[in-house]
Design a protein that fits this description.
elongated, six-stranded mixed beta sheet, alpha/beta, Dihydrofolate Reductase, subunit A, Cytidine Deaminase, domain 2, eight-stranded mixed beta sheet, 2 domains
Length: about 375
């Protein structure tokens, strides 16, 4: 389809916002990062909005990278890309694997400038910006870096920390209970909250619980409801030394069942990494949740809170060995959302808040 004259953006920043929205359309469960790219015509002498020549995003391993997809889009429209600006959410790769190097593709097309959001931490693919600069292309990184990193946080964790990204799911009462004193727990949260939790399961590679939760609840750990058609079922992972019964619900599909015979979260995540897992959701129980929190291996929390009080009953998280308020694990609220009668609080690590809190308590005589 020919590029229309109205297909313009006011600035490179606006083009990056478009590139980020394109990247978000990529697959959530893929070994490759989600990347978007927008090609802009050279600025006119009088300034003003710039014409979009092409756009594209990466659709998964083995398919064209975002830069190549945008170049193909421009060529199919008959647009001249020589002298263009490529606005891309991740630094163009310098590695030739299943697809050619993105840096070389941009050089071959005659692109004059590249603006990217996030530098590539992968030692195999990094160096694209340096390669472009040595060939006379102006390459600038860091535009909307926080948004780019948020979009790529699962992939960045897998590459930089060599472990799966971990989401901790908590579903509790207002006072943090996951079961009543008699052990009853179905259902604390509403159907709307449970449907959302299944949507989140569909985005992950593995769902993990401890042997205690497996034995008491016999969960399937599968994706059900409308979300079941979005992606292949995740691995169903049980962590702990106790045996899992032969007729347990998690064994319904033997190819998806994984038993990690360890109490160590580091060991568990390494075993999952070797299985190709990039994103794991830890769904409890309290002992497993606490183990991952104590190890500093939780990257985000989905807290589903029901508007009920129990007073007694099992807590959502076991002891974290924290004796003083100043040592509390602190998180940043990223979003709050109503789900039926319940509330979903999405939290991410807040290293700045922890650092500021530590500084506040570093001096003696803090006011009460």
């Amino acid at each position: 389809m020919p590029i229309q004259e109205s297909n313009r953006v006011e600035s490179v920043d606006a083009a990056m916002q478009l590139a980020l929205s394109l990247a978000a359309r990529g697959p959530l469960r893929d070994p490759n990062p989600r990347v978007g790219c927008v090609l802009l015509a050279p600025p006119s002498p009088g300034g003003g909005p710039r014409r979009i020549l092409g756009r594209g995003f990466h659709r998964g391993a083995g398919t064209p990278h975002a830069e190549a997809a945008a170049l193909d889009d421009a060529r199919s429209a008959g647009a001249e890309v020589r002298g263009a600006t490529a606005v891309v959410t991740l630094e163009p790769c310098s590695h030739t694997g299943r697809t050619p190097s993105c840096a070389e593709a941009l050089l071959g097309a005659g692109v004059a400038e590249v603006v990217y959001s996030v530098a590539d931490p992968n030692p195999v693919a990094a160096g694209g910006a340096a390669r472009l600069r040595t060939r006379g292309v102006h390459a600038l990184g860091g535009l909307r870096a926080a948004e780019g990193e948020a979009l790529l946080r699962v992939w960045l964790t897998a590459v930089a920390q060599r472990r799966p990204f971990v989401t901790l799911k908590l579903a509790s009462t207002l006072d943090g209970r996951i079961a009543a004193a008699d052990g009853s727990s179905r259902w604390i949260t509403s159907e709307a909250a449970r449907l959302h939790a299944h949507q989140r399961r569909s985005e992950a590679c593995a769902i993990l619980v401890g042997t205690g939760t497996q034995s008491s609840d016999d969960p399937t750990l599968s994706v059900r409801g409308p979300a079941a058609g979005y992606a292949p079922q995740p691995l169903r992972v049980v962590m702990g030394l106790r045996d899992v019964a032969a007729d347990a619900a998690v064994r319904a599909d033997p190819e998806l069942f994984v038993h990690l015979r360890t109490h160590d979260p580091v060991t568990a995540l390494e075993e999952l990494r070797l299985l190709g897992v990039r994103h794991a959701i830890v769904e409890g129980g309290p002992t497993i949740s606490a183990a991952f929190l104590r190890a500093g291996l939780v990257d985000e929390i989905d807290a589903y809170v029901a508007p009920i009080l129990l007073g007694d009953g099992a807590s959502s998280v076991a002891s974290l060995d924290i004796g003083r308020l100043r040592d509390a694990s602190r998180w940043a609220t990223e979003s709050v959302r109503a789900l039926g009668v319940d509330t979903l609080i999405h939290l991410v690590r807040d290293t700045r808040a922890n650092a500021e809190h530590d500084r506040a308590f570093s001096a003696e005589g803090v006011a009460a």
